[in-house]
Each structure stands twice: as C-alpha cells, then as structure tokens.
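[Solved] Which block belongs to which protein?

Original post:
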Amino acid sequence: MPNDTSTLLPRQVADAYVDAYTELDPITGTYLGVPASATRLPDFSPAGARAVADLARATLDRLAEAERQPGADAGIERRCARLLRERLTAELAVHEADEYLRAVSNIHSPLHSVREVFTMMPTDTAGDWAAIAERLRAVPAALEGYRASLAEGLERKLPAGPRQVAANLTQLEEWIGTGSGWFGDFAADGPEELRTELDTAAAAATGSLVVLRDWLRDVYAPGVEGAPDVVGRERYARWSRYWNGTDLDLDEAYAYGWSEFHRLLGEMRTEAEKVLPGAKTPWEALAHLDEHGTHIEGVEEVRVWLQNLMDEAIEALDGTHFELAERVKRVESRIAPPGGAAAAYYSEPSEDFSRPGRTWLPTMGQTRFPVYDLVSTWYHEGVPGHHLQLAQWMHVADQLSRYQVTLGGVSANCEGWALYAERLMDELGYLTDAERRLGYLDAQMWRAIRVIVDIGMHVELEIPADSPFHPGERWTPELVQEFCDLHSGRPSDYVESEVVRYLGMAGQATGYKLGERAWLAGRDAARAAHGDAFDAKAWHMAALSQGSLGLDDLVAELSVL
C-alpha cells in the first residue's frame, strides 16, 4: 500500500489493495496475469492467513479516510467503496471465526488452488516453463503451510467435515497416481532443455502430495471422525453473507426454493411428455435421452462442439442483444484436468486478455455426451453467461477499478447472471427443441434444489408437509443424496460429488437461484420505469459494465439503469 494515503479516493484504495493482496497471494496474481506472481505460491499457514486479515483491516482504515475526501461521494467512487467495505467485512468475519483452520473441500481449498494455478500459466516459451519449474519447487512449502493450518484447527477442535476429508483423500490418490503423477504429467510437456529441472521439481511436488495424503489419512481423518458435516445456523449465516453479499432471511429463501421446485416440476412434466409420451416423471424422460437422445461421441469432439456452440452464440447475440468488444468475443473450450469435482466451470481472462476466458468440461471418464445436458450449461459457463459478464468486467476495468472486476467479485452476482443467461436464451427462442428445453429446465430445477438442500441440510430444517419427499422429516446429507437422485437427470456419482461440494462450501449453492431472482427483479423494475422505451440491449451492456455488487445492492443498481 502507498505510504501517503491521506488524499486517496476509494477506487485508489481498492486498487492498492489488489496490488498488496497479490503480493500475499501469487495465485490470484496469476489469474490476473501479473508476471511477477508466476514463480511463487501463497503462505497457507496461520501466519499467512493473519497477514491477509491484517491487510484487510488496514485497508478498511484507509477506506474510512478516503470516504472523507472531496469527490468520494461521486457514484463510481461510492459504489466501489460500498463493495470494498462489504467484501472485506464479510471476509474478516470468516477469518475471525477461524474458518481457514478447517478449509477442506472437494473443489475450493488451498490444495485445489495449488494444483489449478498451473493450468492457468502460459506454456509458450522456455521462460514460461522455467517459471513453472520454480513454482513447482514452491509446492511443498505451500502444502506444508496448509497442513499447519489444519493441524492447528485440529488442536483447537475446529474440524472439517469427514466427507470433505474422504473426498480429498480420493482426489489425492488420483493426483499422485501410480506413475509420475499429475504434476509429472503436466511437466512432461515442457522443453527438453529443462527436462531434468522440471522432472525434479514435479517429483518434489508429487512427494508433498504424498506427505499430505498420509497425514490426512493417518492423523487428520481419525481426528475429525464423528464431527458434523453440516455447519449449523450461525456458521451458515456467516458463509451466506460471504458468498451472497447479503444477510439472507434463511426461512424465506428456503420457502422460495420450494416454490420454484413446484413451478419447475410442472413445466418439466410438459416437456417430458414431448420427449417420452407417458413418462411417469421428467427424469424418466431424461434417462431416455441419456440412451436415445442426441449426443456427441469423443472427448475432443465434444470440446470442439462446445467451442462451436459458444462461437455461434456470440455471432447470434452480438449486435442484437449485446454489443461486444472484439477481445470479449474470444473464449476457449477446454477439457478439465482429471481428479477434480464433476461440475463444469469457467476461468476468467487475464487483465490484458493474453489468456482468454475458458470453459472447462470434466469428463469423469466418459466419452459419450448427451446434448441435452450440455447446451444450457454452456450458455451458463460460457456465452452469454460467465464469460460475457467477467470478460466485460475486465474490458471496462479502467472505467471502474481493478478491485470491482477482480477480487471484489460476489459469487451470487456472477452465478445469478449465469443462470439468468440460461433463462434469457430460453426467452430468446434458442431452446425450442424439447430435448434442450427439458435439459434447461432440469438445470433450473437443480439450482432450485440447491437452495432447498443447502439451507435445509446445514440448518437442519424440516421438510414441508406438501413435499413429495419425506414430509415432516429434517434434512440430513443422506436424505439430500436421495432427494437429488430422485429429482435430477444427473448420475448418482455426480450427485454425490455435488452434495460433498455443498457440505464444504456452505451458502455458495444458494447464490445461483437467489442471484437470478435479483437480476430478474432489477430488469423488471428497469422495464417498468422505462415502459416502451426500455432497451434490453442497452440495459444488458450497462448491467454488465457496472462491476461487482452484492445482492444487497444489485437490485437497486439494476433498477435505475
């Protein structure tokens, strides 16, 4: 942070925070495209976590001073200040509850960050691979710091959920492998001139995975045996604020999830009848599509097909429903590295767009891919979903602040937009085929179910009397697995991976449907205010160019665009 902060405005304070944070977290630096981050990894020990928290506290002090400066009440400064204060306050609440001492998840943890960052690194030159070798040498220290945090949590009786630990152990077995392991396979693509250096560094990185696996298996797993997998109402409320940028009324949100469940079930039955007349349930029709519906054969073939789907969407939407800059139009379809969770995901472009936005498909060993399960997912992950929003944020970063378009991202805002994007494509007539529309409705149903089971499971709520499933009982992870198996077209192993994900990321799964509700409410309010003069294309671009907002502020800002 600059020494003289007495005359800084909020956006300058926010951007100075980004610079200081990427010094502490080089993984974030790599995602942003900061070259100086390429060789390092964060300190995941308790001391490292305290340094990040100290930076947040110092930044909040500087923000308070900045808000007293002339010009700080301008709309663009005010929005940035509001976001920075809300985000840092939410992050500090999580830190002060010592959640970093039990950060175990099947998808979102220091362990996963250490591996995934290598997939974001450039590999075009010998210099790129030299940086990879140096970062590989940093893996053992990073994982030792992570182990130290978990060990302190164990000592202080702050356990992670046993299901998360079991999932991590399974993932570690796959990453370690029986040959050179994931790191070794990754390094094998490097140049021959660095072969010895890369192989040695990769072997050390894999060795640190072995050390962590053995400790998790022999020490940590027995130490957390019998601990609850759910977090309870108090921890859930804290995490919900972190992921959603609002203090949810958990009971209202739970009821909303059920109302969407019943609405969507009716629509699904209508589409299912078109797919398989006489089907007893929509999921019977989806099972029929798994066997007899349109599908893509081959991993590389599905990657190309998904790339074409996004390219076609960009061509159709640009100039009609969006106005896209050339660099925003570039997005890549990738196959996810093995050993991760089952859900598709997106990674945003670097700040200079030298690394484009990318969608990632985990194949989970499959080579045959039903189309119904892909189309709306790629509208969500790619275009017009995550890619259009996050790439547009990067594109207008100089008009906002780096913080608003990077570190300040609110999960429910982003996931809400992506789910809204799926609905938009339905509204625009891109899902008229019964297969694709039933797949879209199944995806919508999945997000409604997430609201129900995420809140219900962690807060241990009662299943309503009008539920078709175990009315009057209280949710458990076992009931969630059964409910999701019955009300989803997804295979049981995918569902199991998702349930473990929800248990390890309390509150995150609600943001899709609740975020979509906020986006729809904002659009409805703007349309009502403008009447016949409402311009959907202009509204979309203005909405995508305002940077991150929590759900507390999103509806208000969208309503006046």
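(Second protein starts here: sequence line, then its structure tokens.)
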Amino acid sequence: MANSEIYSAHYISGTHWDREWYRTYQEFRLLFVDLVDGLLDLMEKNPAFKSFHFDGQTCVLQDYLEVRPENRDRLAALIRSGRILIGPWYTMPDLFCPGAEALVRNLLTGQRIASAWSTSAMPVAYTCDMFGHPSQMPQIYQGFGISSCVLGRGTNEYDTPAFFHWQSPDDSKVLCFKLQDKMGYGAFNKARQEFERGDGSEESHERARKSLQDYIEHEISRSNGRVLCLIDALDHMPPASDAAKYIAVAETACAQVRVSHSTLPAFFADAAAHLDGDIPVKRGELRDPAKTRNGYLWLIPNCVSSRIRLKQANDACQALLELQAEPLLAIAQSLGISVVPPRLPQIAWETLLLNHAHDSICGCSIDEVHRDMMYRFDQVEQLGRQIRNRALGMISSRCRELGTAPHEFTLTVCNCVPRPWTGSSVIDIDFPLDWPNKLCDAFHSQVLNAFILEDADGRRVPYQILAVEPRHAERTQYAVMGWNATGTPCSRYTVAVDLDIPATGFRSLVVKPVASLQRSMGSLRNGPCSAENEHLAMSIAANGTIELRDKASGQIYSDLMLFEDRSEIGDGWFHGQSASDEIALSAGNSAQISVVHDGPLAVTFRIQTTMDLPERYDFHLERRSESRRGLTIVTTVTLRRGARALECHSEIRNNIEDHRLRLLFPSDAVAAQSWLAHHPYDLVERPIRLRRETADWSEADLAEKPFLHLQAVGDGSRGLALIVPGGMHEGGVVDDARRTLQMTLFRSYRRTVGSTAGRDGLELCPLHVAFAIMPYAGELPVAAAFDQLFAMQSPLVLRQSGKCRSGYPELTGDQAPDQGFMELLDGQLIFSACKNADDGRGVIVRLWNPHAQPAQERLRLWQDIASANGCDLAERDGEALAAEGREVVVSAEAKQIRTIRIQFKD
C-alpha cells in the first residue's frame, strides 16, 4: 500500500440468519440452536471474543429459547453486558413489499423486545440484504434515534464511496456505510475460509494472508475515511473461534491497519470522527441496478411480482389491523371498555412481521416456506377479525335498538377509516328464515323478502338488490362460547344503498317487513355496454377494453385494461423471458359482455375473454411450446353512483405455465416525463425514460418498478391513476407515445432456490386481483385517491341485532345509533395509524404529508383532549400541541411523518 496513513479497522462478528429460505424455519432453527450453543460456550470461555450481533433481529431470541429455555440466563448476561447486540428490527424485512406502518411496527417491536432483555436495541439500521431502499427510510430510522445505516444493494461502488449521507424527502439524514459490491456483508468470509481449510503449511498460510490483504486493500481503495469495517457475517455461518488470529494476521499483512474486535455502533462512532472532507449526499430511494456482475450486488427487482397470493394475504392482514382492528380497539379502551388482553394485538403483529423477512415476503423461498407463511397469515386474520368485531360489538352495544316492532332489527354499518363515507355502499343483510313477508313478482318468479330500510330519524333509505343467497350459514362473526357458536341459518341479501357514514364511525338502519316488494327504478346504464354517473362515463369495446370519459375535463381514455402475456423463465427474484418470445395481447380478442347488476346505485358489467397461449416453456428448445391452451379471464367492472373511480376485479383461471401476465392502461398523457409511485410515507416521482447507460450493466434499468398501492401518470391536461388495495406491487409507465401505465398481475415460474421439486410458483389456480381506475386533470388529487384506496382496503363492517346477530351483544344502551369518533377534516395529511400507545399512556395517531410543501390537518377525536404531544416513531414525547375541545391541529413539513400522543379527559 503506497498510502502511509494509519487506518482503524473494526472486525465485526455476526451471522446473516434467514429464518427460512432454502430450508424451512424448523430446519434452520435446528442449525441456529447449534450456532448459539457454540456462541455461548465461546464467549463465556474466551473474553477476547468480544462481541457478536444477531443480524439486526430480535425474533431469533424466542426461536432459540423455545428450544433452550435453560440457557436464558446465560444469553441474558451476554446481552446485558453489550457483548451480544440485538435489534433494531424484529425481523429483517424486505422494504418494498410490506407497508409503511409495518416497517415502523417492526422497529417498534424490536425496541420493545430489547427493553425486555434490559438493554437497548442496536442503534444501527442493519439492512445488509434488502433489495433496494425506499426514500423515507432515513426519516423512519431517525424516528427511532437511529442515525447510521449499513446497506449495499441499490448502490454501486463506481459512484458511491464507502461512506455517504442518505437524505429522505423531509431532509432527515443518516450516515451510511456501503458494503462492497463483490461479497457485501460476507466479504471477510473468503479470507476466513482460506484459514479454515488450510493444511498448516506455509503455502496455505500465505494464501490466507494474501486473501485477507487483498480484501483490506480493496476496502482502503474505496474508503473516503480512515476507518474500515471488516464484516464477518455471512449467511448461516457460526462465529469464528480464531478471530484473534485473523486480527493478528491482518495487522501483519497490512502494516497501516490497526484492527480491533468491535461492534457496529463503535465503528460508526469512530468513522464519524475520521471522515475525509465533504461526504456525498444521496437523496430519495436507493434502487440503482448493479453495474458489475458480482455474487452479492443485485438489486433483485422482480420479487414484488412473485407469488402474488402471499402479497395479497399480507396486504389484507395489514389493512385489517391498521385500518379496522386497532382504531376500534383504541376507541373502546379509551371509553373504558375492555376488549382483549393487551398482548393479543402484539401477537397478531409479531406473527405478521415474521412473514416480512426479505426471503419470505419476497416469494423467493421453497414451497414449504411459503405454505408456512399462509398459515401465519390465517392466524393474523383470525386474530384481527375478532379484535375488530369485539371492539365494534362492545362499542355499539351501548346504542339504542331501533327495531321496536316484531321482526324488526337494527343494522349497524361501520366505516373504520377517518374520512366520511359518502355514496353507494354494498352491504349484506341477513334475514331469519322465518321472515314474515315473502312475495314474488307476477304468478311465477323468485320469492323475495319484502322489506324497507329506514334511518334513525325514520327516513326511507332506497336500496338496490344485487344478489340473494337463499340459505347461508357460518360460525358466528363474534366469537362466543356454547352451542350457539355456529350461528343462525339465514338468507343473505347483498344490496347497494346510498349512505353517508361518519368518519371512523357508524350509521344505523332499521330493517322492517312490509306488505309489498320494494323495487329500485332506473339505472346508471345508458346503453347496452355503457354507463355513466355524475363524474364518469364508460363503455366497453368488443375486445373487452374500456373507454372512460372524465366528465369534468372532457378527456377520453381508450384501450384501458388490455392484457399482455409473455414467457417467464425466471424465478422468485427475477423476471426473465426467452430470446425467442411471443408477446400475446388481448387487443384482437372477442369478449363476452354481460350485465350483472343494473340499477340506479350500481352497474356491474362482466367481461370474459380467452387468450390462446402456449401451454408452457420448453426449456430444451428454449422457446414457448407449440401446444396451446385457452387462458380465461373474467373481469367485473363496477360504476357506482357518486364514484370518481371505476372499480374492477379480475379472475384469471390460470392453467398456463411459465408466463407473465400484465395489464396495460394507455394514459395518452403525451407530455408526461415522470410518474408517481406510492411508497412508505411518500409519493415518489420517477422518470419515464429508462437509463440508457445501463444497457450493458449486469442489471438494466427496467420500466417495471415496485409500488405499494397507487401509481399515476399525468401531464397537466390529463392523468390516470391506478389504485390497488393489495397484491400487485409491480408497475410503471412505458416510454411510448401513449405513456402506457402497466401493472404486473402475476408471474408463473418453476425455478425455486435449491430445489427442482417446487411447483407452487407456477400459480396454477384461480387468481383474483382488484383495482380501480381514476382519471384526473391537473395534479393528482391525493386525498381522493387515498379515500378510494382506504375504501377498498377497509370495506364497511356490519353487525345486526335480532335473530341473526351472529354472536354480537344485544343493543341495550341509550346512546345515539349514529356516531363518529375520529375524522381528518381537511384531507391534507394521510392517515397511517390509530393505536393504543405501547406504554399504555393514551392513543397514538400517525399521519404523513404527501405534499412537497408544508400542510396541516385538523384532527377531530371522540372525547375532549387533556393533552396532545408530538412524538417520534418510538413513541417518545416531544413538543406539546394546542388542543381545543376534541380537536387538535397537526402541522407537517414537506413529506414529514407526524406521530401524536393523545390523552383524554376523564
């Protein structure tokens, strides 16, 4: 080394522990127990082995103690002494598939568990294996007092030195250490392996010394400071018992280096004091493709479209907990109602977070792993549903019963999100089988229940019958003990009603028998294959595509909902297509169009199309097979009265192997140069034009990129937003003349890590996807878009009184049957959470500002406020906020996340 400067090197011992991946959780746990057993012996017998970290995770502690409870005190002593570092995560997640709130809860859970071990979580964002990094992560980290971060993927050595500052859109900043391109967090392991497989000869010792020297010199060559990080933490590797020897050899091989067995917090403290000059700043998301081909540095961009049933189950569980169970639970508890033990919501979240590990939620593991995940999702759904139903049942049971005559009953319709619900709603009404008034049209027709709906003031509420299930049976929605737990057989009517429902509240209707059938007159349909409401006009072409007219701007959008299919020869991580590919489009298909619902409140069309596709990919001939089969796609398109978006649901009866299916939406926003993608606490603006310089990189820039639930493209005069409640997270805009918005529906692939037996990745089953299309002019109407998203993610929750109350408690109180509890009055900030505070002190409400300028929101709550305090994401109190009565004004800087602690008056 020509440079004579002295470098301080921190040797970091750890392991990268995927709980499940190419082996199942139980198989990996068996190995993890062996690792920790050995680690405890090593650290107790050898004080020179100073420290070890558990991959930034805390979930592995319980994994170990379930098997070795007798070793708890030994483990606790090493954790309390600071020799074993835990956290800050509960499990190391992917950062693009889980939602924003899930990332916060992951860190919050890691912090809670560390405190239970009488220590603090490691104050370093250890993100060594994430597949890119969203824009707001620095703000999230700073919200937990984390000011440093280890990362690799999404950056390249050619333009990123070892140290840089990473800044989020609100200007929060963290100091980052970039892992090297070649081996990332496992770079030290190559030299370690040379030592371990040496035969003791001088030649083998020299090979090991040279390997270690090459590694350290490379670290010096890319460093912009005088502090080096030598990470020895490769996947599923036990600690190096000869760490002292490696350190001694390193200092001999590199005379300018002084090595200590250290920790990541100590490394960053040393580095911050010895950085060279101005440290570069990177802003926004880190998603650069890999330039050079290396074993470690891959962005791995397509895992967001792998195994979409996992993504759908995850998104549904997150929405259930965040938008329904937690807000209702917080309201109930503040009213003095005990719903469930406090530990139960934590169990639901911890079970869900286990599925967020980067090799789990990404869909890149073996089939057995992903089957285990579906079991966990089921457990979360069951817990979340019962928490929600119990809270709603207990809150509403204090209201008065509206049904006063025989056979009348109260229907309580709850909107869980903090924005009012206005317009056409779809609800289910369960009638006892002995409903007294049953009639039919003319002499021979279907026998229907005759009933009316009235609100609490006696006003008639019109309805439109959408479907009837003559006999319906299920276990009670509200879990109860005893023989009545199976519920009461009923007839279920699905109806559309025009309702105004308070924000985070409910409206009650009384269902009454009447002497004659009640018909809904008129229709939104204005032609055989067309319909319109106050805002939109739509029609269906012969090939099944949609034409949509925005009545406010007059702009027309045509050829919407075109299906595109091509070969898929990739795996859970990457999409790949054959060089001899055939891209099939539904443009020339002949669609069968039906009318499913036809009335004044809702019109639904059914569009069935069949694509003639190659059955599979022939891996011997390296092209799609000559034999073909029909892929049937059934899409329902619903236009509701008052709606500003067209709601769609597609069922793909997948019987084709080795293919990728996408939806295309030409926006014709011809002047658009960028598009918006929803990510955790942000709407990221991305260029439409691809980076041409990546054509010969290891990975090329792709038009398809991750998003959470919303993507949009517009040029001022016209724009198109695609709103997706769950499952589909890969989209983008094609750099074509029509500025085509695209969304991957699924990828069917057979290649699975470490196994040729797995077939679940082929997705050979009926697949269901839901989305909404919203045209706009000018800037994206963010509040309206998120109102539509939340309405789809959090459908109305219903409870009844009377014979079919499905376990819910009787309405025995005297309170008003219509109540609202929490509302965002201005629509400037976006709702993220309403939950009981972790420490039991009041309620936590979290909002975020999607705008590039400051904004404020008036938040109205359900009780008089005793105090309101801003706090960080770790729920540590900050500045006091002025509150008056039940309202508090929340101000947010551009792109800022605001967390508020509310305590109510007695």
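Accepted answer:
You had them paired correctly. Confirming on the second one: The two ends are 71 Å apart (CA to CA).
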